[in-house]
């Protein structure tokens, strides 16, 4: 049931505030994260010298954010790999490694094979998963369910946001077990998590019409670029995947600092560039990259924090509410989802069933 929306993808984008509420229900106390039926002990968590995140597609992209969060808060080095690479390369995994697999469906063949490979090598596996009772959920040693409800559109939106929330909770949980996060900082982050559902709602309310308008300017293009630094780059990767998968517009994401190492050669008059610039610690660097793009005629849409009036050089501005620098991914991705959706509609694509793709990839 599309409940009045034209497509499931749009319905699921609109469900995201609720997805976040359900994902956090019963799991956030004042200063801690509670994960029911979680078997990993504080002693286990303290024994890991490395974490591997393994997944495919959008689930992999959520892991790019997960890596930042876990390394920053829990100070455990994190490697990330796509499942179809991990499983065939004899990965360096043993009892001192924790493997986190991420899968909406819980049935993705390569992710399941990676889970089994990791367990064969003696590692414990935590699954971040949506479908209850799926194979990956059953075989993992621990599961964090997204509680997102069924996701029907092939392009994943609400599951991605649930994955991000799960990674944030897991990172705080690990950090508390490792005592690398004080009560005060933990409370501040958890308060930040609690604010996210309403902030996502505000973004949808305030920017959907503008993005719909903006999408008309994208429809005739063949290429688009997404740039950002740190967590903004992780979100850029998801933004470009969503745009290309539903609208068939070729898009690529680059760390903003990599532009001048090759990609800048492709920036010419009129090329659309989505610049994510929400990270205060690197904002000056990102702004100088935006200048470089503008100087070559690129048309830049900035996704920025509200009130940053000094950010110039943007052709279009999409503002998101203020949030902790680590948590902005859950906010900045929303405009990229809406953009992908409206560009696809504008180009007459079959939004909910993109060509050649399936919701659950059970063959390798
Ligand atoms: C993109 C998309 C795919 C899936 C990927 C993994 O929107 O939906 O990239 O994310 O096939 O699927 P799961 O999460 O079910 O393992």
UniProtKB/TrEMBL annotation:
Tagged with keyword Membrane: no
Cellular component, GO annotation: cytosol
GO biological process, one term: UDP-N-acetylglucosamine metabolic process
Enzyme superclass (EC): transferase
Reactions this protein catalyses: D-fructose 6-phosphate + L-glutamine = D-glucosamine 6-phosphate + L-glutamate
Keywords recorded for this protein, A-Z: Aminotransferase, Cytoplasm, Glutamine amidotransferase, Repeat, Transferase
Localization annotation: Cytoplasm
All residue ranges annotated as the SIS domain in the record: 41-180, 214-354
Coarse class of the protein's main subcellular location: cytoplasm
GO MF terms, alphabetically ordered: carbohydrate derivative binding; glutamine-fructose-6-phosphate transaminase (isomerizing) activity
Active-site residue list: 359 (for fru-6p isomerization activity)
EC number: 2.6.1.16
Function: Catalyzes the first step in hexosamine metabolism, converting fructose-6P into glucosamine-6P using glutamine as a nitrogen source.
Subunit structure: Homodimer.
Entry protein name: Glutamine--fructose-6-phosphate aminotransferase [isomerizing]
Gene: glmS
Residues represented out of the complete protein: 244 to 607 of 607
């Amino acid at each position: 049931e599309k409940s009045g929306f034209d497509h499931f993808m749009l319905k699921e984008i609109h469900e995201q505030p609720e997805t976040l509420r359900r994902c956090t229900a019963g799991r956030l106390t004042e200063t801690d994260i509670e994960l029911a039926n979680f078997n990993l002990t504080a002693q286990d968590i303290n024994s890991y010298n490395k974490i591997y995140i393994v997944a495919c597609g959008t689930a992999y992209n959520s892991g790019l954010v997960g890596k930042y969060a876990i390394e920053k808060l829990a100070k455990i080095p994190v490697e990330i790999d796509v499942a179809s690479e991990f499983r065939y390369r004899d990965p360096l995994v043993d009892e001192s490694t924790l493997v986190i697999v991420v899968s909406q469906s819980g049935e993705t063949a390569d992710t399941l094979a990676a889970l089994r490979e990791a367990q064969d090598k003696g590692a414990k596996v935590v699954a971040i998963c949506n479908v209850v009772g799926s194979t990956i959920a059953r075989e993992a040693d621990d599961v964090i369910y997204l509680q997102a409800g069924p996701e029907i559109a092939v392009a994943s939106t609400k599951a991605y946001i649930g994955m991000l929330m799960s990674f944030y909770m897991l990172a705080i949980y690990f950090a508390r077990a490792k005592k690398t996060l004080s009560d005060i900082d933990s409370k501040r982050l958890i308060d930040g998590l609690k604010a996210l559902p309403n902030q996502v709602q505000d973004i949808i309310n305030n920017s959907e019409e503008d993005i719909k308008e903006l999408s008309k300017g994208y429809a005739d293009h063949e290429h688009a670029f997404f740039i950002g630094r740190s967590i903004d780059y992780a979100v850029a990767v998801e933004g470009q995947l969503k745009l290309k998968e539903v609208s068939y517009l070729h898009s690529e994401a680059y760390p903003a600092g990599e532009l001048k190492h090759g990609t800048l050669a492709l920036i010419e008059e009129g090329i659309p560039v989505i610049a994510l610039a929400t990270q205060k610690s690197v904002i000056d660097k990102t702004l100088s990259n935006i200048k470089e793009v503008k100087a070559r005629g690129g048309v830049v849409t900035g996704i920025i924090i509200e009130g940053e009036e000094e950010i110039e050089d943007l052709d279009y501005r999409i503002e998101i509410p203020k949030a902790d620098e680590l948590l902005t991914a859950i906010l900045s991705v929303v405009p990229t989802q809406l953009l992908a959706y409206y560009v696809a509609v504008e180009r007459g694509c079959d939004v909910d069933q993109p060509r050649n793709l399936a919701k659950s990839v059970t063959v390798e």
